[in-house]
Amino acid sequence: MSEGRPLELSGAAFEALVAKVAAACARAIEALPAQHAAGCVGAQGVAEALAVRWPIAETPMEGGIDAVLARLERAFAASLATAGPGYLAYVPGGGLPAAAVADLLAGVMNRYAGLSEAAPGPCALEDDVVRFLARAVGYGPESGGVLLSGGSLANFSALVAAREAVLGAGADLRAATIYTTSEAHHSVVKSARLAGIPPAHVRRVATDERLRMDPGDLARAVAADRAAGRVPFCVVTSAGTTNTGAIDPLGDVADVAAREGLWHHVDGAYGGAFVLCAQGRARLAGIERADSVTLDPHKGLFLPYGTGCLLVRDRETLLRAFSMGASYLQDFDAAAEAIPSPGHLGPELSRPFRGLRLWLAFALHGAAAFRSALSEKLTLARRLADGLRDLADRGVPVELADEPQLSVVPFRLARRPDQTLARANAENAAFLRAITARGRVFLSSTMLPGPDGPIYTLRACVLSFRTHADRIDALCEDVAAAARAVGRA
Questions:
Q1: Residues facing residue 321 across a β-bridge
Q2: Does residue 70 register a pLDDT over 70?
Q3: Dihedral, CA atoms, 54, 56, 60, 64, nearest 10 degrees?
Q4: pLDDT value at position 2?
Q5: Is residue 421 classed as helix, strand or coil in its secondary structure?
Q6: pLDDT tens, residue by residue, 402-430
Q7: How far is CA 392 from CA 78, 235, 254, 425, in A?
Q8: CATH number, domain at 195?
Q9: Are 353 and 397 in the same domain?
């Protein structure tokens, strides 16, 4: 540290600081298998959070980095344990350590990675990542994409691109209409609103018994809306819904989109990365026909939160939607334009070297490691489904709400013949609490359509690179114990 310049660390001081932080991270990684799978939230988590607050002061925290790390360890403990092998709630990712190293490198080097003219090297490496993902989806050399903060911003950017490509600049959006299902992620409706589409013009297409979009109903809805004076321009399908992992019939919807002149966007934030393994690629057949695809590397590629991706079949569509210039940029050498600029392909201008997270992970582990891990997750989901079915055969009254279409397994206690829906839902909520209380796994719940109302359903989403067969077997054991605890076995 320079005298009178406390923000300027010497190389040696920085190395010592990072060594202590690295040691804390190593301790956290080693502790993951034994920690409570849920972490600490709710009233207890809030109490701990209030205890660790530190009003920002004019002087450094007393005790230096050791005191800082001690406080941070308590703060991190007051949260969901999303990095652990038992975290099967919502959509896990795991937080690959190699990506954390990339964040350290990107932060210290601190290159502006919005324009290739300013950072041709980083932008070239980021483009390598985007090209790899585009090829995995099945796109050709004219494709492109951009890394963003997550699936929400990717879906928003896709709808803006669709709006510009189909309706044109300056179009009257009051009649513009988008199609999706009730199972779509809520970011789709939010993105439509941000893109200027009236919420009432996000039309809900019917689903089949497995909660997948009905292409016939889509075609009928488009025809009815055209007759009513609306302007259909985009359909959004899901490559793995959050609720059950349902995969819309991508090829059949692509047929309707082509016939009706609709932009077809696939929200694959959860499931799109499964194109990297053979099992997943077969289940996502038709995704290559979409105009755009959202992937979330912080889900399906196990990266830390804050890494999303939008891919498009034709990169020019993004340039037409987002590329802009300014006179204060006139000093840059135009030769660098041969390397795509992320700032011209999406809404962000100031952005970090986000692509280093993926690039470094691929460089250190190789793509084959990711393909193998994704294949394992599909196999584990099947193992869980088979395990639950075996429990049912042995008298535990548990039922699958659907066979796993990807790596989400929805299940619940079977409803008693004389049980009201309200009592069945309350019993399943207690069932979930009993499973989680054992501390080995953490699941989440959702409400699925039923004959007399929404049914409370548990869901296990297997997507952490740290989750393996032993944790799935532990879940099956805990399901049986929890059924006994609520008086059902």
A1: none
A2: yes
A3: 30
A4: 62
A5: helix
A6: 999 999 999 999 999 999 999 999 999 99
A7: 36, 39, 39, 19
A8: 3.40.640.10
A9: no
User: Is the residue at 1 inside a domain?
Assistant: no
Sorted by sequence, the CB contacts under 8 Å of residue 457 that are 6+ apart come out as 401, 410, 411, 412, 428, 445, 446, 447, 448
Amino acid code (one letter) for 345: L
Q: Is residue 302 part of a domain?
A: yes
Q: Does residue 2 belong to any structural domain of this protein?
A: no
Residues 61 and 72: their CA atoms lie apart, in Å, by 12
pTM of the model: 0.96
Place of tokens 């919807």: 253
Structure tokens at 64: 């230096």
Domain end (from 316, 339, 363): 363
| In-domain check, residue 321 | yes
Q: Kindly report the CATH number assigned to the domain that includes residue 448.
A: 3.90.1150.170
**Tokens representing 208?**
């089949």
Range of the domain at 176: 105-363
Whether residue 256 has pLDDT greater than 70? yes
Query: 195-250, pLDDT tens digit by residue?
Result: 999 999 999 999 999 999 999 999 999 999 999 999 999 999 999 999 999 999 99
Do the Cβ atoms of 321 and 293 come closer than 8 Å?
Answer: no
Cα separation, 359 vs 110, whole angstroms:
16
